[in-house]
Design goal:
4-stranded antiparallel β-sheet, 5-stranded mixed β-sheet, 466 residues, alpha+beta, elongated, single chain
Length: 466
Amino acid sequence: MQLRLWHRLVLVVLITLVAGWIALPGDSWDFADYRDNHPVRLGLDLQGGLQVTLEARPPEGVDVNERTLEATRNTLERRVNALGVSEPLVQTRGSDQIVVELPGIDDPDTAIEVLQDTALLEIVDSRGQYLPPGTLVNTSLGSADEVPLATPVAGQEPPPADDTVYETIISGSDLTDAYVTTTQTGQVAVAFELTSDAGRDFHQYTSTHLGQPMSIVVDKTVISSPVINAPISTSGVIEGVGAQEAETLALQLRSGALSVPMDVVSSRTIGPSLGQTSIEKSLVAGALGLATVGLFMILFYRLPGVVSVVALLIYTALVFALFRIIPVTLTLAGIAGFILSIGMAVDANVLIFARLKEELLVGRRLDRAVQAGFEHAWPSIRDSNVSTMITCVILYWFGQFTGATIITGFALTLFVGVAVSMFTAMFVSRTLLQAVLESGWFTSNWWLGIDPDQQRIAAAEAGGRA
């Protein structure tokens, strides 16, 4: 066997072992926690969870542009990541909607509250006047570009909105952190820390207003109005929030205020049992499809068919390994794209082996026929697969723009599958076939799918043409 062929064969074996190890199901045979850090990621339709569609509700006279919507999406993404949800998806749809998918979420109501609330923090100068919790106020940030008046705190009946414009001392953009804590009396509170510049301004204000109340306002609603007992610099505490609301408020303050208010226009919960059933049926369909295709290839092409089946198994390991490495979130549509890419991989082998048979029937030597089969089939394989990959890019972009995750999942898995199929068809199949043929065990053309009758007919046709 040629040295170059040996090198290629060793490379194929190494790639197969590594890909098989990464794609191996379960938690066994891990090394340096690599497989644990690259788990199989299941989408909403496979493991269940929550899908929420939010629509912008800007104040009168304010338009929602692409920049505002993207800023809101970024804020929502930070909030979702803080929830600890595995593989969340937050993307814009159209000009005024954002779609959020939270696989495996346990508390849909809390998640929707975290997503929808604007959480605009302001500490305002109430001008020596105590403002009771629940009061709606106007502040110096209450311009057309900011969040409008929010609904009062649940369970409270605040007085009508105060038309007086209060001066904002610091706002949520001045925060560096926010977290749940307890006061000296054991009450739950939300502590916050400020930037150095904001801390200087806050210290100057509190130093000159000792003994006067200032109001802590979230979403234009007064949460509390503590009296300034001592100068405050880079940290403070928000009291007057319940234990359940404190964690949510801290999370929202850390992630920032929404650029525009959002309303929930639709939400749906998918149960994990539906996803498990879908996975089982998809695995059965994939196994049956692969077995049927493999049987056809072996019966029709014989030895090359066996080689193609081995190449398909290597292809499957490679694709699933890439799904874990990239990573790709598997959905039902994504699995469909992967199964379709198996067909593309088989199609490439069919083109190669059909050309190989033609070369043998016209009397070429075996080694020349194998080389010609792969070289002449390559342009057709390249053009068809590249066309499919371009279509996948268009579908992926369309799915991202419209928020149709079913399209993006299909496009991504099909793209990866088609790209890998070209590698396995032109490199893996070729290396394996050449290695088997050079072993000298299969010298008859029968092993290559050519019967004696076909050879006689081809020889007669060649003689007639001569």
